[in-house]
Amino acid sequence: MLRFLLQRLATIVPTLFFVSVLIFGLQQLLPGDPATALAGEERDPEAIRYLRQKFHLDEPLPVRYWYWASGVLKGDLGDSVRIQKPVTELILEKLPVTIQLATMAMLIALVIGVTAGVISAVKRDTWWDYGANVFALWGLSTPNFWLGILLILVFAVQLGWLPASGYVSPFEDLGANLAAMIMPAFVLGNAIAAVLMRHTRSAMLQVLSSDYVRTARAKGLDERVVVLKHALRNALIPIITLGALEFGTLLSGAVLTEQVFTIPGFGKLIVDAVFNRDYSVVQGVVLFTATVYIMLNLLADLAYFFVNPRMRH
Amino acid sequence: MAAVVFQDAEPKPGGKTWKRLRRRGGAMFGLTVVVFFVLTAVLAPWLAPYDPLATSWSEVRGAPGAAHLFGSDELGRDVLSRIIWGARASILAGVVSVSISLALGVPIGMAAGYLGRWADALISRITDAMLACPFLILAIALAAFLGPSLTNAMIAIGISATPVFIRLTRAQVLAAKSEDYVEAARALGNPHLRIALRHIFPNIVAPLIVQATLAIAAAVIAEASLSFLGLGQQPPVPSWGSMLNTARNYVDQAPWIAIWPGLSIFLLVLSFNLLGDGLRDALDPRHRA
Amino acid sequence: MRIRQAFVLLLFASTVQGQTLRIGLAEDPDILDPTMARTFVGRIVFAGLCDKLFDLDEKLNVVPQLATSYEWSADNKSLTLKLRNGVTFHDGEKMDARAVKFNLERHRDTPGSNRKGELSVISSVDAVDASTVRINLSAPFAPLLTVLTDRAGMMVSPKAAQATGEKFGAKPVCSGPFRFVERIAQDRIVLERYPNYWNKGEIHFDRIVYQPIPDATVRLANLRSGQLDFIERLQPSDVPQLKNDRRFRIAKIVELGYQGITINIGKSDLAQKNPLGKDARVREAFELSLDRDALVRVAMEGEAQPGNQWVAPNNRYYAKSVPVPKRNLERAKQLLREAGVPNPSFTLMTPTASDAQRMAQVIQAMAKDAGFDVKIQSTEFAASLKLADQGQFEAYLLAWSGRADPDGNLHIFLACKGPLNNSGWCKPEADEAIEKARVTLDPAQRAKLYETVAQNVAKDRPIIYLFHRNWLWAHNAKLTGLRTVPDGMVRVQGLKMN
User: Among A267, C229, C315, C484, which is least packed, fewest CB within 10 Å?
Assistant: First the structure.
């Protein structure tokens, strides 16, 4: 177990190195440069010259990488050129928002996905199966920015039940916060629900045909008990580990949903920074989320490894 | 991107698979719709009632009626014709992107699985790094780098989706490599390439097909997302994603401009998803009734 | 004693109802430091946060704000300002001549300052006495007063600026009716009423919250659902529907800027390789193939005014002898025949924003009627800037947000030495007129000089000006006191919610 852990930890370092090179390279290769993009309408040549000097834009790529990477190792992710705020501060500001959105989306996804998956597996090849399939898949089959706009028009403008966009801190007003987050969480959760449904279905099918379940049935237990108590519990483990991975993706992948609902999370931060050529922000935030994702991966692997022997009853 | 399903080594899928596929209603529905859209795309020049690029200042945002079955858009163009021609862009977006992913991912994955040691370690770390970056961010950065256009969007999506196929191929190769018949083939002195092509490759075809089908679905959505940000198909050539993007400004006054592309994307993507799921069921021995 | 005061205040406050004004912006502003700020939308926030030396009225006249009067010296190289008494910054510091001197020097000298170009003509500033400032110029500069009605005229607290240095933008301390409370990037900027504002009688809100909501549909949805009281940049296509909704009002005014097509005439060798850049007749044919009225009607829903100069037709500096041309397909085709290129083809570099894309498609369709093959090349904003600066384009669909003084719309683009002269046009006669109009203060003389420039521009067409948009605002009908000034700023003085 320990050896496994050490082995995995050893792979994390080179992976993070490649992540840093990848995201750094992608940013720096974008046409145009931050000095011009951020120098405003008049693009005063002196202001541009100053920016280029300040952010070492005229130096060769490897040198710029070194400036950035050495800063990162010291804990300094640089500053946003656009609003002159340290990237670390921006991350801390947006982290609670993104975590809340991701958690809510995950819960919705679990409810929809696992339920659909169980129904689909238990009643396979019937209309229940197809229905559950389509229900879970429809979230994956619609562009989420589109779904978001439709929901806003229906629930915010027409019905007036929910706010159209924006974010309120839960500490300020929990009710308003939930009202603002429920639509984007639903849009995000919908898409993940499909993935969870597939895996629940797979895992359930596998478990339902196992000896363990056959024994339970032979013992005369009620079918519902068999499904829920015995089969689902065992099928849940791979589902949860997958859930952990998807959670990691959610943390940075809610790009378009945040854009539409104007939720100040990571996704919106990164996209705006890409178009504004605010290099430090993109590099810093992606590095951060990649690290979190890799850690979640590691935890999922460990959990699976840990739990695996117990699965074979 | 959709998660990966691992397969036990199986002989090439064939008639039995088709029979099993036929029994799953969802998959057949999906297949029918996909074929329908592909035919629409191919036969566009003959099916479309109007030139999709023909503007008309007097018919701006006309409601659906006799002249324009699906209505006309913000520049007076016929929505139905644009939907028909737009099928080309959307299907291409899906198919070409995934083809790029396959063309890159499968050889690299096979190299990683087969060569092992340093090659494997290097490739795996790079793949992990790509997977750790948010898919859409990679695609956006690549598309911005290449320049806004449908072709570049397809390349961007294709490259961003490659790691999944690398992982999948590699896993299958590793599983197959330890099989007895491969060891035997090596012992007999068969060259590596021949082993790779004859013995290993057929086993990975099944899961690759499943993954590819699901990836096409995701790629169509990705193209729509890139269009939302201005990086996909550029006007005036229609694609459902860019139509949806312009339409969102008119959702209230002229909903038909938005409904048809949205519905089309939904149907196409849903169908690919159902088809992919059905294929997985048909090819996976564990799911046999 | 304190408790009683607090109680009374609470009572008072509850009756006044602590009103908050919620404004929806189209983008997230950049740095909230007038010296470093670069965006249009940042200026809207400054309208609530920072007062300036002068302001503009609806007719574009310069009116007093922090300065009460001005006087030019005989040689026009020195401007003396009289300052308003009793004005304080948000931290209590006095706004006096020393503070003005500090600010002007800060705008001019700070490394990376975006006001340098506007104030480079200032050679020195003297604080004559506590309420008199003398600005000395190296040469006469007609746009100076209007420059001082924008960010370059905004005054920040010297004490705070010196204390925070580069980080001033994170917690700006300024001189306007509201002071800074907090800012959450991409979410909101919150300002609260400054009790010692010199004009506090005109302020009827306790707080302003600016919320950037880039998606225009969502921004309007927020207004309609009641979450916002005011939004800027309403989409033209939303006007017809909103007009019929009695809960809201739409306000509009023609902008100071313009929408135009910049043509590469001499910026790089691409100019010579393309018939549009090479031959003035081809450019004339292109302009004649465009129907500006139809363009405005289809692409902008009529919410713009056709134009052909860097200022709108109703501007006092518009040259009436160079009117907006009408479409003339026959003449266009004839010109192309004469030039020997009946079917010229060129690439129009277009920003990815949806309205620019719409315009480009309409232009493409119109020009096709004359035989032009216009290829739309969508280019991301940051990339397009670089390409334009390097001259790597043939035609560029560009909008300019506009300045109050005509020189602000003209010099940077069309002066031979203009930093943004991406067309590469340099005509000595026109250049002389442009430079001369900068140093002449008499409006009549300036108008005559601009007429010369307009005639030259009309002949060579380095830029084909298309139209001037309407600023479109939508707000809750209960909000009164809104002033529509062509600079597009949301002035908070006088705004009241009934």
Answer: C484
